[in-house]
Amino acid sequence: MKIGIVGKGGAGKTTTSALLAEAFADEGRRVVAIDTDSNPNLGISLGYSLEETEAVPVLPRAMMVGAAGDVTADELIEEYGRTTPAGVTLLSAIRVTEAGGGCTCGGHATVRSLLGDALEGHADVTLIDMEAGLEHLSRAGGTLAHADVLLVLMEPTRKGVLTAARTVPLAAELGIPFTYGLGNKANLPADRAFFENLCDDQGVPLAGVIPFDEDLLACERAGLRLPPGKGLEVRKEIKQVIALLDNLVPATAS
Ligand SMILES: Nc1ncnc2c1ncn2[C@@H]1O[C@H](COP(=O)(O)OP(=O)(O)O)[C@@H](O)[C@H]1O
Ligand SMILES: [Mg+2]
User: Fold this and answer.
1) What's the 163 CA to ligand 1 centre distance in angstroms?
2) How many Cα atoms occupy the beta-carbon half-sphere of 81 within 13 Å?
3) Is 144 within 8 Å of 128 (Cβ atoms)?
4) Domain that holds residue 50
5) Nearest to residue 86, comparing CAs of 150, 135, 21?
6) Please, which pLDDT band fits residue 251 given cuts at 50, 70 and 90?
7) Nearest ligand to the C-alpha of residue 153?
8) How far is 2 from 127, CA to CA, in rounded Å?
9) Total number of domains constituting the chain
10) What is the atom index within ligand 1 of the atom nearest the CA of 153?
């Protein structure tokens, strides 16, 4: 199962990517999480320090992965994959380290190639934490063209839901079978009603509503991942999202 995590800046893409990845791994599934943000932070949410996150080697740009490509998936995981404390293999696809270093299209091409079928034998679940905006859906070929499902993270704001509403038809055009909005930072129960009503109005299928959690915010401020045992309401909702995803893409559920 290949899941693209998209949405507005600050909506909770990285946080939710990490929580989903960890929950899948806790069920014994092999999980690869790919950070495609040019300002990569996924490693921190998966339990690495800043230094460890920055030490994850960045995938070469415009690399074709697979038996007939530049590198096999085995070689790629061996050389560039890092096993994080959350039990998830992290790949870092894009990092901008110098001003004026050029566009990141080559990094996106590598990710697109990876999502073809190269990772099939290595991961039961691949999660892709994307940069904010919709460019990844317009870029030549579409970085996420091979994804099975997109989750659009939404804060409880009108613009958050409208971002999901704009994403739905673009993803369908790219051939991605399923796109859902996923509410986040919700003040329950009122914000659930907000998400349900506006999503219904805008034609956005709703995958769930994750509550606002003080511990998540505090951990982020401290540069730490949410420790096991914390954020129980958040984790409960994450499990329900996983159940929904398993129903959509049953062949890959173990
Ligand atoms: N459910 C939540 N409850 C509380 N804070 C959250 C929640 N989800 C995300 N956050 C906080 O919101 C901020 C942005 O989250 P992040 O995952 O980095 O967003 P994105 O990757 O979409 O830019 C972080 O400080 C994070 O800790
Ligand atoms: Mg992020």
Assistant:
1) 17
2) 20
3) yes
4) 2-252
5) 21
6) low
7) 1
8) 6
9) 1
10) 22
